[in-house]
Structure formats: structure tokens, C-alpha cells
Design goal:
alpha/beta, Rossmann fold, 27 helices
């Protein structure tokens, strides 16, 4: 009889699973199909999606071919690795190397596992309130079901736990308990560690939740039927449960919550079945990798430097170090971005790795403005933390990071090359090139001009600006509407909306998972991509891919302050590249010693080194005409400036694979050549002789 009941329940359970899975899959297929139909009738989709390949909207095994500068073995890591889908059966990835010279120069890279805890680990306590209330309400709704299911499950657990296990080793008692529960037999594949993917999408989470729910329901009915057919065993189990101590119950509860699943760690030389601890209430399986994780997983060296600005903000300056190199590059991201943008394309397509492979010491800057609100004042309010404009990016953040770079490089070169004097006749022992994108370009221009006005050294030898912000009057209707909205409602928004970001961990997790679904279902991803491009004036950047970047994760994300957006609206309205207008002549006098903000475009004559401007014809966020405005003003001011324009959209400069763009940027970077040691030593000797002669004369 018991065998008949077990067979009926097993067949019913599998039938319910099949029907449920197929229903969910059909709903998803319907959504994907409707998205494909909508995408087919939307105008302009061909232009928006023409630059996308299948592997960009749907991860596959294929990637772009090696760029020209890596074909001769310049790179030590010229094996491009793609993120693979969760359905992949690949058990390992081959990080082959064509040239191991750099491995001899640098020690082994730090383990990426330790970098799972980011330096931005202090969260806003208010972010957890909404999630806490949701959990509280759900727990009360599900309390009756928990009560009904909990007693039979616990009785069954105790009944099977007390059965003789003479042939079972002592160390495997947890496996015998797990076998008796049969709760995760069909879930094992979901918990096996996979190196090929880092997160599940919402659809995959629904599959997993449905399977857990079906397993729990049928496990309840299975045990209920077993108890009814064996009443003596029920009474015996009930007696043992009631007579057991409280501590034993707690242990039992812990064992039911934390179980061990046989799993294979993929990618090992000799994979073997190991015990993998699994917590049903644990990780939400989102991709929370940091820039450090990406760099070290690809085998490059990494260093993190914490910088404190003059107004108390903590910044993270990241580095791919070549300590003895006298060629240095500093990369600065734009709005709602981070250093992740410079390494997100892997070894082949990322500017940071390309610069390192060309012999540069690479520094990656990060602006202030994280949800975690890193500041020397641990109790700083949200209003106070987000009270900054582009002014602070250009006059606080960049100066702090560049001075830290100067401090680090001069100290290291003193040790590795003691024959070089620190600054012989005003010459730095290294050459610094800056590559900046979008808002980072505007902040860098502001930094150069304010440093020159204050007669302070800017340390730069060359600057490459990729679609720099500053001039915005030639834009689409969406940005014009944003301009007037922020200018009219500025007094109200400044008090009520200090910044723009996803406020709670739950919704950040949801975005992270939806980004995975957009990749799994290309029609849905293409529809979202097209709609976002419509909103942003037809810009064909890979907006769907950007949403999947791991710096938008449930723990933290970059935000943008209200004053930064207000500052951009001011510049667009005034048709000038100028500093922040504080709203009154007296307030501006206190800051600028002038009733009007400083017009940066009129001070381009202060730039005393070469500048390379790059614009994209498909860029509808900062159009080529606005980059040409920078070029014209610089040319009229006598700056050594070049202008290049190609078929790129706004995010293509950092996020998408474009060999021509990287080749051009690398060619401009390689024009930065540090002075030869002999020249520096000769200048140093001449300077010393002059000082000696002067002292004798005195």
C-alpha cells in the first residue's frame, strides 16, 4: 500500500512540475513573441540595433577577433573570455597565454574571492525598511501554511533521524538526514557552483521557487500518507519529539535550514564531489562583482588606493600597476558610471587592459556619489552628502586623485630608479595621460583651468576626451524637457530629491536580475533597447548591456546628485560651458569673486598641452556639433588640439567593442613618451651646477 501511495504521489508530482514549467515557459515565450512583434513594427529599429551582434544581446561562445595591436603578442593575456549562459555545460575556461613575460615581473594576482566584500560596505539603513515590511507581511500571510507543514516535516525528520544507520559512516549522518527529507534531490543542479554565470534572472528564480514549493507540498502529503498508514510509528515519533530537549529541536531546525549538497567545483584539475553548504535563505544570486574581481580574474595585477578629498569624501582610486613604468594613464568615467566601464569588455575590448599591455601604469578614477555614502562623517545626512555639482568633481575629486597618483609614482620611481631625481628642472619623472568620457571630460577641463588659474601644477602631458560634456544646447526634445523641468522646479526638487538612484536593495536586485532576462530573451532585450534609444533621441548605445553591469547591484550603485543634473541644465540653457550658478549674485561672489559663474570656454588658452577630441556621429546624448564647439574654442585659443569623428554612439566609447576606436586612442596615448634618463640626468646636473654657482656667488 505504501509503495502504491509513493508511486501515485511521485507521478502526480512530476506531472504538476511538467504542467507548471510548461505554463511558465509558454508565458515567457508569449512575452518574447509579443516583444518580437512590437519590435518588428517599430520604426527606426534597424538603425538602433544595426551595431549589435547576437553575442551582445544574447551571450554565446563567440567574441570579436583580436585587435591589430594584440596580433603580434603584445598582450600577455590575449585570450578573450566571454561570460557564458547558465545553460552552458562548459566546466572550465582556458586562460592561455602567448607571452608570459609580465608573469615574471609581477607576483600572482590576489584572489578575487576576497574582493567580494567591497570597500563600500556601509549602507543606508533606510534602504532596508521597505524590504523588512514586505518580509513581515509575507511571513504573517504564510504563517498558517508554515504551521501546518512544519509539524509533519519535523516529525518525519525525527522519525528518520532515529533510524539505525549501521552501514553509514559517522561523517555522513547529514547526508542520511537529507536523503530522508528528499527536499532538494531535484534541486541539486540549481546549487552546483558554476563559473560560467553569476546570477539568475527573474524567470529562472520563478522556476526555482516553483520547484521548491512543489517539493514541499508533495513532501507534506507523502509524510501525511505515511503517518496514516503507520499510526504506531506516528505515536512513537510524537513521543520522542515531545520528550526531546529544546536544544535538540534547535539543532534540527538548523539542519533543516543549512544542508549539504554534493557538488563539483568546476574548473579544478581533479574535480571531485564535495560538500557544498547551501542556505535556502541566503544569497539572492545577483552579480555583485567589483572592478577588482574583473581585473584579478583575468590575471592582471590590482591595487586599491583610498583617497580622501578636501571636503571629506572617500574615493576609490584603482590601479593595474606597472610600478617601474614612467608612462602613466588616468581614466575617468562619466555620469552613472564607475571604473567598471573601462574593464567591462574583457581583455580584448577594454581601454584599461589595452593601456596596460602597451606598458602604461593604469589608474582608474571613481567620482563621489555612491549609494553607500562613503564619507569621513559616518553620520552624514543624505541631503548633505549629495550636495555637490560638477564643480566638486573638477575641483575636489580629480585634484585629490591626481595628487595621489603623483605621490605614489614619485615614491615608487625613487626606489626602482634612484638615478632619477624627482623633478629635475620642473620635469616630472613620469608622463601622465588622461582619458575621460562624457562628464569626466567636462570635470577634467574644469580641473585643468582652475589649477592654472590658481597657479598649481596639473601634472598632465596629454588629454584624450571621448564625447566630453560641457556644451549641450544642440539636443533632442527629451533633454530640453528635462532642462526646463529642472530649472523651473529647482527650489522644490533640491529639498525633496537630493539625488537619483535606485533607493532600495530589493529594486536594485530586481534590476540586476531583469538585466539577465533581457540577455536570455533577445526580443525583450531588443524592445527595451529600442524604447530607451527613442527616449534618448535615437542614440544606439548598448543600453541593455549597461543595465547588466555589476556595479548596478543590490548592495551599491553609482548615483547622480540633483545639483549635477541641475548644473547640466544650466549649461544647456546658457549655451555655455561654465561652473555652477548658485542662484544669486551674492552667492556667486562668495565662491567666484564674481556675480557670474566662471566661463570655462573663455579660458581654454590656459591649456598648455595637446588635447585629442573624439566624437560619435551616432551619439545623440552629446552630439558631434557640441564636441566641435570645444574644438573651435580650443583652436581659436591656440591649443594643440585634434578632432576625430567616427560612427559611434555615446556608450560605445567605453562599453562596446570597436577596434578602430581603441586603435585610435592607443595611437594618441603612445605619443606620450617620457624623457630619456640621460636627458633627465643632464637637466638635473645643470640645475645642480646652477644652484652651486649661485650659492658661491652669494
Amino acid at each position: 500500500m505504501q509503495r502504491l501511495v509513493d508511486t501515485v504521489l511521485a507521478v502526480t508530482k512530476e506531472s504538476v512540475k511538467t504542467v507548471t514549467y510548461e505554463s511558465l515557459n509558454n508565458i515567457v515565450r508569449l512575452i518574447n513573441g509579443v516583444s518580437a512583434l512590437l519590435l518588428a513594427i517599430l520604426p527606426g529599429k534597424a538603425k538602433i540595433l544595426e551595431g549589435f551582434h547576437g553575442w551582445e544581446l544574447r551571450p554565446t561562445f563567440r567574441g570579436p577577433r583580436f585587435p591589430r595591436w594584440m596580433e603580434n603578442g603584445v598582450s600577455s593575456f590575449n585570450k578573450f573570455i566571454h561570460e557564458l549562459s547558465i545553460d552552458s555545460d562548459t566546466s572550465s575556461m582556458d586562460y592561455s597565454s602567448a607571452d608570459e613575460d609580465s608573469d615574471a615581473l609581477y607576483p600572482a594576482s590576489p584572489s578575487s574571492q576576497g574582493s567580494r566584500i567591497s570597500y563600500t560596505s556601509t549602507f543606508n539603513q533606510d534602504d532596508g525598511y521597505l524590504g523588512g515590511w514586505i518580509k513581515y507581511l509575507i511571513s504573517w500571510i504564510l504563517f498558517p501554511m508554515k504551521l501546518l507543514l512544519g509539524l509533519p516535516l519535523r516529525l518525519g525528520h525525527l522519525f528518520y533521524a532515529r533510524r539505525p544507520t549501521a552501514h553509514s559512516p559517522r561523517g555522513n549522518h547529514r547526508f542520511s538526514q537529507l536523503d530522508s527529507l528528499k527536499k532538494v534531490h531535484n534541486l541539486k543542479d540549481h546549487f552546483i557552483l558554476r563559473t560560467t554565470d553569476r546570477r539568475r534572472g527573474v524567470v529562472e528564480d520563478l522556476h526555482l521557487a516553483i520547484e521548491i514549493f512543489i517539493e514541499a507540498i508533495f513532501d507534506f502529503f507523502h509524510k501525511a500518507a505515511h503517518f496514516l498508514l503507520s499510526p504506531s510509528k506516528v505515536l512513537k515519533a510524537l513521543h520522542s519529539w515531545l520528550s526531546s530537549p529544546v536544544s535538540g529541536n534547535e539543532d534540527t531546525c538548523d539542519e533543516m535550514t543549512d544542508t549539504y549538497v554534493p557538488a563539483t567545483t568546476l574548473g579544478e584539475d581533479h574535480p571531485s564531489s564535495t560538500e557544498q553548504k547551501t542556505n535556502f535563505h541566503g544569497s539572492m544570486n545577483t552579480d555583485a562583482r567589483t572592478c577588482r574581481d574583473v581585473i584579478t580574474e583575468l590575471g592582471y595585477p590590482y591595487e586599491a588606493i583610498r583617497v580622501i578629498t578636501s571636503d571629506g569624501y572617500f574615493l576609490l582610486l584603482e590601479r593595474i600597476p606597472r610600478r617601474d613604468s614612467r608612462k602613466v594613464v588616468y581614466l575617468q568615467h562619466g555620469v552613472l558610471d564607475s571604473s567598471m566601464g573601462w574593464v567591462s569588455n574583457g581583455v580584448v575590448g577594454s581601454p584599461a587592459f589595452a593601456a596596460y599591455d602597451q606598458g602604461f601604469d593604469v589608474f582608474l578614477g571613481n567620482f563621489r556619489g555612491l549609494v553607500s555614502r562613503e564619507h569621513v562623517d559616518k553620520n552624514i545626512s543624505s541631503q548633505k552628502y549629495w550636495r555637490y555639482s560638477i564643480n566638486e568633481h573638477g575641483t575636489k575629486d580629480i585634484p585629490a586623485m591626481i595628487e595621489k597618483i603623483h605621490e605614489v609614482k614619485t615614491a615608487e620611481l625613487k626606489i626602482s630608479q634612484p638615478d632619477l631625481d624627482e623633478e629635475a628642472n620642473g620635469e616630472q619623472p613620469y608622463k601622465l595621460c588622461a582619458i575621460c568620457h562624457s562628464l569626466g571630460g567636462a570635470a577634467m577641463l574644469m580641473y585643468i583651468i582652475t589649477q592654472r588659474i590658481e597657479e598649481k601644477p596639473h601634472r598632465l602631458s596629454r588629454m584624450i576626451l571621448l564625447s566630453p560634456a560641457g556644451f549641450h544646447h544642440d539636443s533632442n526634445i527629451f533633454f530640453t524637457a528635462i532642462e526646463y523641468l529642472f530649472l523651473l522646479l529647482a527650489p522644490i526638487l533640491a529639498c525633496t530629491v537630493p539625488a537619483f538612484y535606485i533607493p532600495t536593495r530589493f529594486f536594485r536586485m530586481l534590476l540586476n536580475k531583469l538585466a539577465r532576462d533581457f540577455h536570455n530573451y533577445p526580443a525583450v532585450g531588443g524592445l527595451v533597447q529600442t524604447i530607451m534609444s527613442y527616449v534618448l533621441g535615437g542614440d544606439s548605445s548598448n543600453w541593455v548591456g549597461v543595465l547588466g553591469l555589476p556595479h548596478y547591484n543590490m548592495n551599491d550603485m553609482p548615483g547622480v546628485s540633483f545639483q549635477v543634473v541641475h548644473h547640466l541644465a544650466q549649461m544647456k540653457h546658457a549655451r555655455k560651458f561654465r561652473m555652477y550658478d548658485y542662484g544669486s549674485a551674492s552667492a556667486n561672489m562668495d565662491v567666484y569673486k564674481s556675480p557670474e559663474p566662471l566661463d570655462l570656454g573663455k579660458h581654454y588658452f590656459l591649456i598648455n598641452f595637446p588635447v585629442d577630441l573624439v566624437a560619435g556621429r551616432k551619439d545623440n546624448v552629446i552630439r558631434p556639433s557640441m564636441v566641435k564647439k570645444h574644438y573651435k574654442l580650443m583652436k581659436d585659443a591656440g591649443v594643440d588640439v585634434s578632432y576625430n569623428e567616427s560612427e559611434y554612439a555615446h556608450l560605445d566609447f567605453t562599453f562596446s567593442h570597436h577596434e578602430e576606436l581603441l586603435a585610435y586612442v592607443m595611437s594618441r596615448m603612445l605619443l606620450v613618451k617620457p624623457a630619456q634618463k640621460q636627458q633627465l640626468n643632464q637637466k638635473s646636473l645643470r640645475l645642480k651646477s646652477r644652484n652651486t654657482a649661485g650659492s658661491k656667488t652669494n
